């Protein structure tokens, strides 16, 4: 999962050692019930994302409700803090957030459905891949540097058309206790379309309020193993903070830095921030050139 084809590729040091050795677990009956509920909800997904069968407002509401239900079936409780003003404009918005797990997509969908920029092999993940295609995922293969400008152009076109697009600028998943820097390349789409960016803080916490790593999808873990652990965990809350919009400006590095500061504002740990910044600075120059 963290194999690097080029020096510019995002890489995370997070792996199996970041995952809890003995996380709090629910009993077998509860876990089995969660499995059945998740399967039942997933079977309805094609109907809730079925293109033009529903008008757009109804389709977005259905997707939001679907994500809420699936999160609860998996035992994740969602809290949202909205710090935005009341004068937010309509139209296309680029949503950016930290990346911890595949569940981040469900979390953001529950808050504000969007088209996602996601790893290209997600489209091959069986039912999840079929759902991703119906949700108009924009695939990105970070090992293929030459394709990055095409991805940026697709995001730009959707923003200009008034759509919401969500991306994870760290470029790979981290455990939540450590994190990477926001890479600037995808922010060029917001600048080209002159559309604002919505930074979203995202944190998984346990019952004591400390960072929980049980939902993390890191290292070489399979999606099946991640799902099994998730459905056995106990008492994880997903804390979402909707920060004020950031105007695009004309410099993608500056825009990325502003959004990163916004989502990290409530984080602790200067050493972790410096770690993420070091990874960002040493690996970002090639990606910057590719996005031009």
TrEMBL record:
InterPro entries: Plipid/glycerol_acylTrfase (IPR002123)
Pathway(s) it belongs to: Lipid metabolism
Species of the source: Rhodococcus ruber
Keyword Protein biosynthesis included in the entry's annotation: no
Example GO molecular function: 1-acylglycerol-3-phosphate O-acyltransferase activity
Protein name as catalogued: Putative acyltransferases
Keywords of the record: Acyltransferase, Lipid biosynthesis, Lipid metabolism, Transferase
A Gene Ontology BP annotation from the UniProt entry: phosphatidic acid biosynthetic process
Keyword Lipid biosynthesis: yes
């Amino acid at each position: 999962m963290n194999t690097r084809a080029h020096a510019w590729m995002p890489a995370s040091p997070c792996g199996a050692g970041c995952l809890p050795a003995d996380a709090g677990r629910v009993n077998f009956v509860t876990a089995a019930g969660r499995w059945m509920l998740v399967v039942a909800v997933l079977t309805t997904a094609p109907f809730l994302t079925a293109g033009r069968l529903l008008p757009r407002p109804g389709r977005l509401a259905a997707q939001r409700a679907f994500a809420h239900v699936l999160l609860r079936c998996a035992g994740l409780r969602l809290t949202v803090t909205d710090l935005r003003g009341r004068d937010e404009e309509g139209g296309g918005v680029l949503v950016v957030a930290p990346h911890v797990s595949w569940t981040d997509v469900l979390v953001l969908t529950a808050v504000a459905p969007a088209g996602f920029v996601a790893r290209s092999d997600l489209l091959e993940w069986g039912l999840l891949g079929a759902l991703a295609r119906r949700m108009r995922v924009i695939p990105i293969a970070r090992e293929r540097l030459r394709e990055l400008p095409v991805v940026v152009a697709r995001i730009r076109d959707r923003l200009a058309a008034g759509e919401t697009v969500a991306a994870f600028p760290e470029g790979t998943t981290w455990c939540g206790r450590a994190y990477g820097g926001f890479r600037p390349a995808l922010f060029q789409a917001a600048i080209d379309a002159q559309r604002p960016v919505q930074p979203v803080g995202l944190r998984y916490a346990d019952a004591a309020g400390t960072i929980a790593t049980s939902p993390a999808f890191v290292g070489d873990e399979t999606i099946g193993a991640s799902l099994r652990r998730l459905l056995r965990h106990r008492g994880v809350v997903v804390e979402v903070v909707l920060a004020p919009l950031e105007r695009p400006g004309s410099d993608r590095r500056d825009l990325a830095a502003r959004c990163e500061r916004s989502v990290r504002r409530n984080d602790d740990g200067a050493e972790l921030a410096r770690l993420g910044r070091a990874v960002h600075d040493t690996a970002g120059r090639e990606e910057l050139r590719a996005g031009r």
